[in-house]
TrEMBL record:
Keywords recorded for this protein, A-Z: Cytoplasm, Methyltransferase, S-adenosyl-L-methionine, Transferase
Gene encoding the protein: pcm
This protein's name: Protein-L-isoaspartate O-methyltransferase
GO BP annotations, alphabetical order: methylation; protein repair
Gene3D superfamilies per the UniProt record, alphabetical: Vaccinia Virus protein VP39
Subcellular location: Cytoplasm
InterPro entries xref list: PCMT, SAM-dependent_MTases_sf
Function: Catalyzes the methyl esterification of L-isoaspartyl residues in peptides and proteins that result from spontaneous decomposition of normal L-aspartyl and L-asparaginyl residues. It plays a role in the repair and/or degradation of damaged proteins.
A Pfam family that the UniProt record links to this protein: PCMT
Species of the source: Methylococcus geothermalis
Family classification: Belongs to the methyltransferase superfamily. L-isoaspartyl/D-aspartyl protein methyltransferase family.
Single Gene Ontology MF annotation: protein-L-isoaspartate (D-aspartate) O-methyltransferase activity
Length: 219
C-alpha cells in the first residue's frame, strides 16, 4: 500500500476516524456505512498532490474536469441507498475515482459501475485492484443507458447529475429497488431517492446537491 510512502500522518487510521466523527456530526447514522467509510482508504483514489487532504470533507479534482465526491455526499447517498435493507446487485453510474464503488462494495452483493471517460475508468481499475475487492465489475460506457445485461438491479446510484432521470435507469430497477441521484441543471440540483413500487415510482426530494453533469456518450 501507499500508506508508508506518503507518510503515516496524513493517511493514518486516526485521520480517517476524525473524518468519520465529522460524518456523524453531520447526521450520518447508519453503522455499516460509517464502518465502510472508516475502512476504505480515500487517499488511494485522489491524485498524489491532494493525498494530504484526502480525509477532509471536501470534493477534490481527479482530472478531466471531474471530482471525487465529498465524503459526506458519498456517505449520505450510500445511506439513502442501503437503509431499506440488503441489496444484491447495485448499478453505479459515474465510477470516477472508484471511491464510491469501493464503499458500496463493502455493503452490497455486487457493484456494477459504468464510467464514460476511458482514462478515468482505467485508473479506477488500478485503484480498486489495490483493495482486492472480489465483487466489483467496471465498464467503460454511457451509464445513462444503464447496464442491461447485468440488470435488473436492487439499487442504482448516479454520481453525476442528469437534468431529468434517464428512463433506462428506472427500467432497470427491480420492484422494491431504490435509486439515488442528484437531478437538475447547474446549481439547481436536488438529491432524489426513488423507490420502485408495484404500480410505479415513489420519489422523495432529500436535499440540495452539487454534482458534475451526467453527459451523453463516451470519451
Ligand atoms: N463517484 C465518483 C464521482 C465522480 S464525478 C467518485 O467519488 O469519484 C462523476 C463521474 O461521472 C465523472 O467521472 C464523469 O465522467 C462520470 N459521468 C458523467 N456522465 C456519465 C455517463 N453518462 N456515464 C458514465 N459516467 C458518467
Amino acid at each position: 500500500m501507499n500508506v508508508r510512502l506518503r507518510g503515516i500522518g496524513m493517511t493514518s487510521p486516526r485521520t480517517r476516524e476524525r473524518m468519520v466523527n465529522r460524518l456523524q456530526e453531520l447526521g450520518i447514522r447508519h453503522e455499516r456505512v460509517l464502518d465502510a467509510m472508516l475502512n476504505v482508504p480515500r487517499h488511494i483514489f485522489v491524485e498524489e498532490a491532494f493525498a494530504s487532504r484526502a480525509y477532509e470533507d471536501m470534493a477534490l479534482p481527479i482530472g478531466f474536469g471531474q471530482t471525487i465526491s465529498q465524503p459526506y455526499t458519498v456517505a449520505r447517498m450510500t445511506e439513502l441507498l442501503v437503509e431499506a435493507g440488503p441489496l444484491r446487485r447495485v448499478l453505479e453510474v459515474g465510477t470516477g475515482s472508484g471511491y464510491q464503488t469501493a464503499v458500496l462494495a463493502r455493503l452490497v452483493g455486487t457493484v456494477y459501475s459504468v464510467e464514460r471517460i476511458q482514462a478515468l475508468q482505467e485508473r479506477a481499475i488500478r485503484s480498486l485492484a489495490d483493495l482486492k475487492l472480489g465483487n466489483v465489475r467496471l465498464k467503460h460506457g454511457d451509464g445513462s443507458l444503464g447496464w442491461r445485461e447485468c440488470g435488473p438491479f436492487d439499487g442504482v446510484i448516479v454520481t453525476a447529475a442528469p437534468i431529468r432521470l434517464p428512463d433506462a435507469l428506472l427500467d432497470q430497477l427491480n420492484p422494491g429497488g431504490v435509486l439515488v441521484a442528484p437531478v437538475g441543471a447547474g446549481r439547481e440540483q436536488m438529491l432524489q431517492r426513488i423507490v420502485r413500487t408495484d404500480s410505479g415510482f415513489a420519489a422523495q426530494s432529500v436535499e440540495p446537491a452539487v454534482f458534475v453533469p451526467l453527459l451523453p456518450g463516451t470519451a
